[in-house]
Structure formats: structure tokens, C-alpha cells
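We give its fold:
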Amino acid sequence: MPDMNPTIAEVTERIRLRSKDTRAAYLEMIRSRRPTNFARLKMTEGNLAHASAGCAVMEKAELLGAGWPNIGIITAYNDMLSAHAPFEHYPDIIRKAAREAGAVAQVAGGVPAMCDGVTQGQEGMELSLFSRDVIAMSSAIGLSHDVFDAALHLGVCDKIVPGLVIAALRFGWIPSVFVPAGPMPSGLPNPEKVRIRQLFAEGKVGRDELLKAEAESYHTQGTCTFYGTANSNQMLMEVMGLHLPGAAFTNPGTPLREALTRAATQRAAAITAQGDDYRPAGELIDERSVVNGIVGLMATGGSTNHALHIPAMAAAAGIQVMLEDFADISGVTPLLARIYPNGPSDVNHFHAAGGMSFLMRELLGAGLMHGDCEGVAGPMSGYGREPFLEDGKLVWRDAPDESADLEILRPASDPFSKDGGLRLMSGQLGRGVSKVSAVKPANRVLEAPAIVFDSQAALKAAFEAGKLDRDFVAVVRFQGPAANGMPELHGLTPVLGILQDRGFKVALVTDGRMSGASGKIPSAIHMSPEAARGGPLAKVRDGDVIAYDSEKGTLDINVDSATFDAREPAQFRPNESSMGLGREMFSYFRQFAGTADAGASQFTFLGEER
């Protein structure tokens, strides 16, 4: 095992020390619940009769006779999400594989799964971030039946996997294996899709041509192929050890995909407390696993949404992660992959070039990942392998020696850049993050007057009226969790991209989100404290000169500090944005959401209500 990079080792140790008390309390909780026998044996006869009543005869006999372990399935299936549509048939596959492994499998519950691609720029996007914590609570309801010896979690997309992880860790005495569905085959090339979107934003092509391009991009079952939050989730599950090696990016509907699903079921049956390889999720995931996840995020140029989700997931296991940890890890982690929006290629091309096995081997070999922590399939040092079918049997081979395409995937010795491209942004305007991996160096530093907007619709209207043909910093405020649920502002990307292509210096500063598809626009997002809670963005006025420097990680305003502090902050005025489409039902979530730099979660480190 190579020596650990000293910065990675130092960050891991400070997370451990910072989390000492909360982690100890968490471990005490889950260890107190370690089963001494099959979980269902503590049930009364009436409880157990209800738990087994719907099973097939063989499974019912084993549940009532206590002969086999019971695997609970938490599924995010719905057939509106292309990424989740394949899960329709997974329970049948899993039940059969479990029976062959001497186990029972039951669907314990379903969780909501909204598609950000459908709600992007729409009112429903204001429920998106909060759906993560609803998913965690929904998963907890399914698992609270407390008759399960292991769990399989079926989920792929944006808030769904983080919500499932939070629940898996709150039930951390249960072994958990995450089971993906895989990306759809490649469709319209990403640069062409971007070109059509920008032409539509300028009014140069019509809606029919735009719809044709979008439909050719998102065209069948499977995850969207760009490297946004959904595919970043799959990378994370692999580098954190909750997947089987190489499970992330195998296409749905293939024999290999089904073989991996069967193998995940068999592995879940093998790692229960009743066997000799007990791997409870809450002990398997520790500060080393979390650091591995952040390293993987930086090495692949993954979604900025994980600056929210990783702290929230870690907190569920009593582990305290801060934005400084992201920034310091980014500073020493080389960028090894260019996947759209950081390059023209998609995740299928990444997978073909060597994919996760090559990436893991390179990061482990460079001392940037902890190979000594455990995954569901064994030590993470063994995750640099790739699955194949040989005569119908699932086998794993070592990662390829070389990348098949150096324009997509590079070795650690010859990276695209020496750092991971995520910056902590801090200064007079608060704290946030900036993703610079897809931003040209010439666009990473600017000073320009602010133009302040209280909604993304207002910015779009100003663009359509021809009022934005100049250098400026767009301040889009009242977009945080307490204001309107922190929707993604991805719909601003074409507008700002057009202005940048026209030669103007533009940047975005917001307390909202931009997702993994933020692309080439310099931005400071997740700004905290948010404007709706009196944060500095509420005091910015049109014409204030903002100094944005994502190379140094600074974000300041050229206004005398005494003058700025004395300003009366603009007041957030809830209006129709908090009503309709169920948004009024989430007023509690807006009221009690944590700050963005701590994950914008409803939960504390031990999971109690705030």
C-alpha cells in the first residue's frame, strides 16, 4: 500500500478529531442494536404472521421457521424517471437470487423519486432538495418494521441516493448494499445539445428543433449520460464501498447488469450478523470512506450538489464534514476525468476508456484514497477491478493498464489538472463554493458591477429585454433552503453562456444551486448565510462592484465595510412561490433547514429534529 498523501491524511485525521464525540455516540447507538439472531425473532407471533403473510410458500416457511436471513428492499422505482424505470423488474430478480443464496427478500417500502430534469426551471423544483430528507424518512418507515437482516437500496438520481444513504446509516447496524440501474446508451452528442439550447435562448431556432434535440439526448431507460449529480452519486457509492466493484456504469437491460444485481443480492445475504463476515453499514462507512468520496468527486469533476449531500450523509453517521475539507482535498487531488460538462464525452465513453476500475487503481496507487477501509465487497484496495461475464459467470478482472482514451481519462501521473477544481469561496459576501474545472482560466477572475435579481425569472426577463449586454456579476438571491427550498438554477446557464460567448465578463453569485451541469460560467453558489436569513447578499445593490476570484477563493464587494454593514437588508417576501403544487406543505422544511455549508439538512449529527 503506498504512503498516503499527507494532506489527505491530515484532513482525514481532523475530521476524525472534530467528530470524536458525535461519532462515538453514533457507534454506541448502532452497536447497542447489533442483532444476536435473525431480526424477526424478537417479534411476537402476530407481528411475524403479518410480516410473512404476503410471501410465497417457501419464503413464508423460512421466515416462520427462522431458517434464512431476510433482506429488505427499499426501492425508488417509478417509470417516469428513465434512470429508475429499470427497477420495475428488480424485485423479481432479487427474490430469485436471494432464494438461490438461502435468503428471503421483501420490498420493505418505496420512496418518492422526483426527476430534476422534469422540474428544472419549474415550480416543482422548489421541493427537490427537500425530497432528500423526505426520502430518508420514507426509507426509515420501511426499515422500521425491524424484521430485516440486510438491506438493498435501489436508487440512482440526484437527491434519491443521498436520502437512501442517510437512512441506511441511521439503521447502521444493518448491512446495506446499493444497487444501481446504469446509464442509458449515448444519444445526441453533448456539444450539439448545448449549441441547440443556446440557439433557442437567442430565438434562432424554434421549440420543435429544441424538443427534437432534447429527445435525442434523453431517449430511453437509464441515467442521463452527462456527469451531473445522478452519475456523481454512482461514482460516490462505488468509491465509498456501498456498490460492488464496477457496478456504477453498466447499461441497463444487459446480461452483465442483471448479473451484478444478482451478485449484490447474494452479497447482502452473505454479510449479515448471522454469518462470519458481518459488515454493518454504520461501521463500514467512516471518516476514511467519506474522504474517499470527496477525493472521487474532485478527481472526476463531479456535481457541486455533493457539497451539500456529503456533509448531510456524513452527519447521519456522526461524522462532521466542512467546506474547508472539500477545498483542501481538491487542492491535492488531480483531475483525471473529463466528462460532460467538463468535456464533450459522456459516462459511457468514460466507462469504455477504463471507467471506475482504472480511476480507483490510479487514486489508490497515488496514495490519494484509503485502501484500508472496507466496502461491501471487501477492502477498498481491491476495488480497482472491473466485472465481466465469462461463460455466463460473473468475474472481476484487474483494471486496464492504460486509459483507452486520454482525452477522457488520464493516469494520476499525467492529469488534466493538478487539482480537482472545487474552490471554497469566502469573503464579505459569505461562504460558498465554486466549480472551476470547466471554467477557462481567463474567466476565473473578474471585477464587475452587480446586477441584483430576486428570482431567476427576473434575470431571464432582463436578458430577453436586451439589458444584459455588458460585463456584470449576477446576484441571484432568495434562492436558499429557507427562502424557496434551494432550487437548481441550471436554466440560467444558456443565458449566461450566450453573454460570455459574446465577449462579456459575467459571473453568478447566488445562495441557490447550479448542479453538476453548471459548466463554463464562473459562479459562487450555496452562499451562506442565505439572503432570506439576513445574509450579506441581502445588502448588495445594483452597481456595487464585486471582486470575484476563484483562483484565490475570494469573493468581496468594493464597498466600505462600515457602509455595507449599516445597510438595511432587503427583505424576503414570500408570495405565490410558497403556495401551490404542494409547496405550502413544506413550510416546516423551509423553517428548519440547516445552512447550506452544513448540508441544508433537517437533521443534526444524531438525527434529532432541530
Residues 535 and 567 are 12 Å apart (CA to CA). The chain has two domains: 6-185+220-398, 422-575. The longest helix spans residues 128-143.
